[in-house]
Amino acid sequence: MHTKMFKLELFSVLIVLLLNISCSFAGAIPNKTPTSIGNYEYPKGVYIPSNFTIPDGNVFKFKLYLAGFVWKRCNGTSGQWVGDQYRSVYFNREEDIHLYPYSAVAMLDSRGAVFRSNIPKYDSSTMSFSCITSAPSYNNPTENANDELCLAKNNTGNGAFSDITYIILTEAKGGAAPPNTECGTKYPDGYVYSDVLTATILLYHRGTQ
Ligand SMILES: *[C@@H]1O[C@H](CO)[C@@H](O)[C@H](O)[C@H]1NC(C)=O
Ligand SMILES: *[C@@H]1O[C@H](CO)[C@@H](O)[C@H](O)[C@H]1NC(C)=O
Ligand SMILES: *[C@@H]1O[C@H](CO)[C@@H](O)[C@H](O)[C@H]1NC(C)=O
């Protein structure tokens, strides 16, 4: 029940995102508008798959909370769901998700897979990434998107993303496609399945402690 309500709320919140409303609301709720990207407290008890290894010389920098949509398309010939599109926004605190759009600190530009600051007045950094290892979500792999270990690259600008080297996505809720056996059977070729996704993102940079 709670999950459903949360999902509906998130849904209406993200509709706004999908309409691509990018006007600045700064000033409307000045106390709630964040001025920096990142929550520097390591998430307690966070699950990281054992084969996700961050090379020595890189350390945790900050975490972010993700809320977004994923779309997967059924390829009836291969019987596989293929990633189609995704949209996501990032928050410093999980509870900030409900205060969107005032509270979002970053967003993902889906075409180029580029992280962009949502508060360019305070932080102009961007980065792209490519994922190198994935593992099934530890609690419910049929409903939740895979955990991902990704390499950050092409960092630009000044701010939180400027020196990021690795990214881990974990604690996903939602975002998995139906089983491949249902693609081409229950769901026809070309069917686009959409789901709401939330997750925790851990970001690493060069350092030794
Ligand atoms: C669907 O899968 C088949 C077999 O792997 C592949 O040849 C084809 O290009 C795919 N179609 C699309 C639209 O991706
Ligand atoms: C990492 O481990 C998971 C199981 O936790 C496995 O499914 C996945 O294939 C592994 N990835 C690599 C690259 O070894
Ligand atoms: C790096 O990022 C900048 C700014 O977003 C972009 O203009 C440039 O094309 C990117 N370069 C590569 C190799 O992705």
TrEMBL record:
Segment forming the signal sequence: 1-28
Keywords: Signal
Protein's name according to its UniProt entry: Putative exported protein
Lineage: Eukaryota, Fungi, Fungi incertae sedis, Mucoromycota, Glomeromycotina
